[in-house]
TrEMBL record:
InterPro entries: BOBF_sf, CarO-like. This is Uncharacterized protein (TIGR00156 family). Residues 25-49 have a biased composition (Low complexity). Residues 1-22 form the signal peptide. The keyword Signal applies. Gene3D superfamilies: Bacterial OB-fold. PANTHER family: PROTEIN YGIW. Residues 25-51 are annotated as: Disordered. It comes from Pseudacidovorax intermedius.
Length: 137
């Protein structure tokens, strides 16, 4: 009985691994587009109840996990998904995943943008995790 349970468990493990391997190989096949690139652009474009904040307001009185909107410029790429955002009141680190940038468009440091995201505040880190990036001009 114990050996049949062990054999069944092993068979299920091998079946699951084979299914996961097949799915992974299809996604990573040469010429295959990543799942993120295949996603159609879209989302909500109407008004927001989240008020526009300034960097100074966030740094002075922002709360951890607070939803935010910022308007200004991305002034530097600091490696990986880390950037520096600036407005007329200051600078803050922002984390922007590649899929949040507009497809087929390169942004420069002079480009005005609006960032929607979540303010992350801890003892060691103060940043905005960007969930949406809108080009303003």
């Amino acid at each position: 009985m114990r050996s049949s349970i062990l054999a069944s468990t092993l068979a299920l493990s091998l079946l699951a691994a084979g299914t996961a391997g097949a799915a992974g190989s299809a996604a990573s096949a040469p010429g295959a587009a990543p799942a993120q690139a295949a996603a159609a652009p879209g989302g909500y474009s109407g008004p927001s109840t989240v008020p526009v904040s300034t960097v100074r307001q966030l740094l002075d009185s922002g709360r951890d996990d607070q939803q935010v909107r910022l308007q200004g410029r991305i002034v530097s790429h600091d490696g990986g998904e880390n950037y520096t955002f600036a407005d007329d009141t200051g600078r803050i680190r922002v984390e922007i995943e590649p899929q949040h940038f507009p497809a087929g468009r390169t942004l420069g440091a002079e480009q005005r943008v609006e960032l929607h995201g979540e303010f992350e505040k801890s003892l060691r880190t103060t940043e905005v995790e960007v969930e949406r990036l809108i080009v303003l001009n």
